[in-house]
Amino acid sequence: MKLLAYLPPLPPLLFAVLTVGGLASKALHIALHIHSLPFLYFVLYAPTLVLPDLLVIAFVRVLLHTPSPETKLQWVWACLGGLLSLIVWSASSIQFGFFMQTGAEVAWAASNSFLSDPAAMKILLSGISTVCAAATVLALVAWLAHAKLYHWTGLGLQAIQDLFKGSYKMRYTLLGVPNKSWINKSWLTTMDLRTVRRIAIAVSLCSSLIFLELTRPSIPYDHLSGALPLTLLDAFTKKSSTTGGCRQTPMKFPLWTDVNTGFMTNSWSRPSWLPQNPPPGFSHYEHSPDERAEKDNPAWYLCNDNEPGFYNPKTDPLKISNLGGDIYEPLKAAFNEHSVEIDHVILLTLESGRKELFPMQQGTPMFDALLESHTEEHRDEAIDRLVTMTPIAQMLTGEYSTDSKGEKVDLSGANWHDPAEEGMGGLNVRGALTGSTLTFKSILGSHCGVQPLPVDLLEETGLEIYQPCLPQLFELFNRAKNPVSELLERDDTASGALKNPWKSVFMQSITDDYDRQDVLNKNMGFKHNVVKSTLTSRKSKYRAKGEEINYFGFAETELKPYVRDLFEEAANNRTRMFLSHVTSTTHHPWDTPDDFQLEHYMGDQGNINHKLMNSYLNSARFVDHWLGEIMTMLDETGIANSTLIVVVGDHGQAFSEDNKDMTGTYENGHIGNFRVPLVFRHPHMPRINIDVNATSISIIPTILDLLVQSHSLDARDSEMASALLPDYQGQSLIRPFIPYLKERHDSPIETPSDIDVRSSRKTQPKEGHRTRYNWNLGIINAGGSMVSVTAAGSPYRLVLPLKEGFEYVFSDLNQDPGELHPIKSWTMDDLVDDVLSKYGEAAAEWLEDAGLVGKWWVNEQRRIWGYREA
């Protein structure tokens, strides 16, 4: 009871909570973008930014006013005002908690998808401590200021009310006195000179605010003026994908190209190599456009032209094929000697797998940032500890690190040692970029060779994947081996291994419920899955023995008996294995099993708490050790020499050590989230380092090319693989990569007005040769807000916003490889001008082209996927 005596009256406290929460949220919102606002413009338009918040505050103050005597209706209004106050307080606390965790702000439009996903809720709840801390601080400030805020706001509203009442009396007097002496009588008798000045000031302020509101630029000020709780309405505007209706109308490619970007009518014919009953994924090979229209729905057609809307490599202006080029000479020699056997394929996807950690070595922006956390006298010790963190990655890539003395690191303590001869080991791609910083969209690129749909989260699960995925390709080979098949005769000359059927298995030690991954796995063609539910089922052969280590499930080591059984089956039975395995320990919160010895990689220098980075580095070391266990099991079961292992990161992971403004992948376009490892490991393939900016869409073309060129397929399978290979968008990495082409053009570029982001400064190029880049497009988690645009053969990079509230970002990765000093702007024209002055004409022209290509690509991906918002 004594405690209750110290509590303030409820309406003033609720009002103070709304006022403090709303204004604090607005201050944070503006602070996150103030660096990109011209100072004079910010000062000029600042009143309009807080005007919506002031109107909300005034509205709730009226609702919480409790006159005497109180009425039932007034209680209803008071309850509504209290509810709005609690909503604003909660939302503001979430914004501050999210900011303290990631450095970013909450996108309420995507929150509905997370709230409906139990696994995603665990991610959100991981930051509950910071949200509670923010809520406590806001509530404390509100408690301290509640009386004055409630009183002052009440006085202000009363003054406005009195002002309007006085104005009404004045008008009534003027209308009631027809003689010309009204100025000396009525005006001065109804109000004094002070009231007149107040009216004049109020009218001037209102007129100025209205003028500024009407004349200010919409970008970015409309976004910055959003006020709680109105911005929460975005959470109820979630749209989902549908296959109904028509496909999106294609846009003309905005740059000049000698590729015919129109559709090729009447060009369909059923391939001779296709079995009678192909597996899912081959519908556009199996059925003609007319059959598809009758069989499925009109979504595969442009309604007006009745032409196919699915992906056509012959009309893709972004596709550059290198299949006409020769294979690398060392590889050609190995293939001719028939020393490379590929009976099995393993695709390892490293969660949050940054290239700088695979392997960790000196000379990268990340390594330099890590060293800065140590004092000068301890840096040699830190170097020696860091370079021994990922020894398995060193052996798989062939990128061996050097210690503080410049000597090759001693890897004798690793749990696996590479038995391959010197100079052997396969392809190591240095410069690979992910196609998406959202894991499952990235998996679509590596497993299916497709580019993602630029919308939030995994809406692709409601659509048909527009290219066959790896499990479907291997199932196609199995269907062709069916004795019932009348299409091709059985190849009796093939070796025993080539006659064996493929078995595709997906394994991960965590749940597959998050963001419909179970649906995605089914759509990709996986029939055998080992996931968290397998590890916890009483019917399973091997149940998990350890504790769950993160939101999603267990450590990868719980899969070890399942992996060993699969390897032994591949070694002893008549099957060819395709294993897809996704690691997860390197996902936030980066916990490891209790029996895993942690190392201290970080020092205590700087203004950053390095705890999170240290946890991430230890989780990377744990995964590296797990890869060593996989390689050991391959050696022990005797299939290492006939297994192709592909290692790729799904995306990177940015920390405060990379970028002090933002961390994580969510709506963070930093280059640290895009650089990933890409390795094609085989002990009998020569070691070749490939320095190209390729993406994971090159994985399927490379695997198919390897299977064909190494004679690891029988005649029928080889024919099918060779026919399918040119249809994929990516280039094969066993041949020299083509970063760009020089094409002759004799006419100006025609730029469609609906996607014109080209600056008025730009002049059309003269006749001659023009560079046609191999453009790399990547979406930024959660998918629908920003696109990363790069081009192989160019150091420039553009982060292109797809909706308001995000800035254009340009960087030159040659001069700024860690992207520490990018150029940001709210408009493309302003960004082009800034880039022109700092980097010159060539960079500015590339930037303009990149903006056009990115806008076109977004529309094209929606058309190819058959995406329509419902």
Automatic annotation (TrEMBL):
InterPro entries: Alkaline_phosphatase_core_sf, GAG_Ulvan_Degrading_Sulfatases, Sulfatase_N. It comes from the Eukaryota. Residues 755-768 have a biased composition (Basic and acidic residues). Keywords: Membrane, Transmembrane, Transmembrane helix. Residues 745-768 are annotated as: Disordered. Residues 514-707 form the Sulfatase N-terminal domain. The chain crosses the membrane at residues 12-34, 40-63, 75-99, 119-145. This is Sulfatase N-terminal domain-containing protein. It comes from Penicillium canariense. The lineage of its organism: Eukaryota, Fungi, Dikarya, Ascomycota, Pezizomycotina.
